Amino acid sequence: MRVIDRIVSGVGRRVDDSSPMVDARLPDGSRVNAIIPPLAVDGPLLSIRRFPAERLKADDLVTLRALTRPMLDFLSHCVSARLNCLISGGTGAGKTTLLNVLSSFIGERERIVTIEDAAELQLHQEHVARLETRPPNVEGKGAIRQRQLLINALRMRPDRIVVGEVRGEEALDMLQAMNTGHDGSLTTVHANTPRDALSRIETMIAMGATNLPERAMRQQIAVGDPARRAADAPERRLAQGDEHLGDHRHGRRHHHHAGDLRVREDGHHAGRQGRSAASAPPASGRSAASG
Predict the structure, then answer these.
(1) How far apart are CA 28 and CA 245, in angstroms?
(2) Omega cis (within 30) before 226
(3) For the segment 153-181, what is each residue's pLDDT rounded down to a tens digit?
(4) How many Å apart are CA 187 and CA 85, to the nearest integer?
(5) Cβ atoms 200, 189 nearer than 8 A
(6) Percentage of residues of the chain with pLDDT beyond 90
């Protein structure tokens, strides 16, 4: 407890019975997380994530075989062409590392606004404005969330907006910014596959705008994306090259090729020409697809 108190007090934070959890950024950029009893059953827990002084660069990822050169060239062209990029992956998969690398392809003359829960990004461009969320004070007031920072960032004349990680209600504001003059924005999201990432974005939009119709949600994601626009039309066909895995029913897995699928107006998948691997009707829930 003495160690935790010394660490968190040095960054202007506190941890006690009324606030038994703390997540903060240390002066050297490390992330510290502490949780104490009664939430921590067996005693105080302290976790510190340290980062190297020199972050991995684009060529380092190729050297370490995390990317191939053609992959890196493709991503660099996407950033240069001002395409919005959503990086998905699990915890510790390297999302922030890749985000740092992609941000290095942004031009020097562009004004960048970064928004993070705890500042981790290291951008070397000249015109970078870094914003960081703020937790509530002792009275439980004064918290500043990512959504508020995103709304304010739009008034700061950014050419690009970089969100360290989208995880809640700010997803809608982020998409609106991407679709209304801030092309080429970058962010990360926790997800297992790219398709799951889009589903998670829809869920997060619903968290912040519970009355927003599902079709309006998908339109926000589909703007500028022909594949997603096509996916919202009735009697649509999935993009070639994708595969569809339905739920297990009666011990059978439904496996369709994309070209053999249509989607009815009600959003359910319908097999075409009897070429599906199983003829049982698909489950009513949203099915998973991977490219």
Answers:
(1) 45
(2) no
(3) 988 989 999 998 888 888 888 888 888 77
(4) 7
(5) yes
(6) 23
Q: What is the dihedral of CA 241, 251, 202, 228, to 10 degrees?
A: 20
Q: What is the token pair recorded at 78?
A: 């996407």
Nearest Cα to Cα of residue 110 among 97, 91, 123? 123
Q: Residue 244, exposed/middle/buried by CB under 10 A (0-12, 13-18, 19+)?
A: buried
Residue type, 149: L
* Triad 287, 188, 290: Cα angle to 5°: 25
- DSSP secondary structure letter of residue 154: G
CA-to-CA dists, residue 150 to 32, 164, 268, angstroms: 24, 12, 35
Looking at this protein, which amino acid is placed at residue 205?
A: I
**Which residues in 57-78 are b (16+ Cβ under 10 Å) and which e?**
ebeebeeeeebeeeebeebeeb
Take residue 76 and report the two structure tokens written for it: 């660099």
User: Amino acid identity of 184?
Assistant: G
**Residue 267: which of 237, 241, 289, 234 has the closest Cα?**
234
Query: Which ranges in the chain belong to alpha helices (H)?
Result: 2-9, 58-63, 69-80, 95-103, 146-153, 170-179, 194-208, 214-222, 226-231
H or E element that contains 116? strand 112-116
Euclidean distance between the first and final Cα of the chain, in Å?
A: 48
H/E stretch holding 25: strand 21-25
Whether this prediction's pTM lies above 0.85 is answered by: no
